[in-house]
Amino acid sequence: MSTALTVNSYFNDQVKSIALENAEGTSTVGVMAVGEYEFGTSQREYMTVVSGALTVKLPAQTDWKSFAKGDTFIVEANQSFQVKVEETTAYLCRYE
Amino acid sequence: MSTALTVNSYFNDQVKSIALENAEGTSTVGVMAVGEYEFGTSQREYMTVVSGALTVKLPAQTDWKSFAKGDTFIVEANQSFQVKVEETTAYLCRYE
């Protein structure tokens, strides 16, 4: 087999991800460099911290919430959310 | 900050990874396409399945062992190990 693995790059290469499809569904695994980012969703996203930590302001929330390694947060489709990254962080984003 | 995130590619692009350094240490997060691979280590590696599954023959072992999402196996430095990938799989590899 020769499946090309797709790498995507965002925010001037400060966020990179690799796409995958398996029994769990469609996901990307990626890394965010230190910084602040705003992401938009087109599907429901299940974001899991794989290494590091994320501080997140979820849609329609005013408070920031911290997520450590192993934690998951969910963002509905067609929303935007803000992320502060204080150490380089790996994540798994599963789409639904 | 403008930290370049490094993407590496192995086995004719069937395995790709993104490097990161944070409080947990030095790691790569990556994806393996369906296939069979033999990896060599230069440091001790803690390999964790992030999504999917890996079937692994560890150094000096004759049996294959399956690792599911969330499972970790350890390979000492300067060893080689074989991996069978039956569905596209994301992993975290922490170096020590």
Task: Tell me what the structure shows.
- The structure is a homodimer of 96-residue chains.
- With 96 residues, chain A is an all-beta fold.
- The first copy, chain A, has a single domain (7-95), classed as Jelly Rolls (Sandwich).
- Chain A has no helices and 10 strands.
- Chain A has a 6-stranded antiparallel beta sheet with strand order 1-2-3-10-5-8, with no helix packed on it. A 4-stranded antiparallel beta sheet of chain A has the order 4-9-6-7, with no helix packed on it.
- The mean pLDDT of chain A is 96.
The CATH superfamily name of chain A is Jelly Rolls
The greatest interface between two protein chains, and residues involved on each side, is:
A-B, 36 and 36 residues
Q: What's the number of domains of chain A?
A: 1
Neighbour order of strands in the largest sheet of chain A: 1-2-3-10-5-8
Element layout with pairings:
The structure is a homodimer of 96-residue chains.
Chain A: E1 7-10, E2 15-22, E3 25-32, E4 35-40, E5 45-51, E6 53-57, E7 65-68, E8 72-75, E9 80-85, E10 89-95
Antiparallel strand pairs in A: 1-2, 2-3, 3-10, 4-9, 5-8, 5-10, 6-7, 6-9
What is the gist of this entry?
The first copy, chain A, has 96 residues and is mainly beta. Chain A has strands at 7-10, 15-22, 25-32, 35-40, 45-51, 53-57, 65-68, 72-75, 80-85, 89-95. The N and C termini of chain A lie far apart (26 Å).
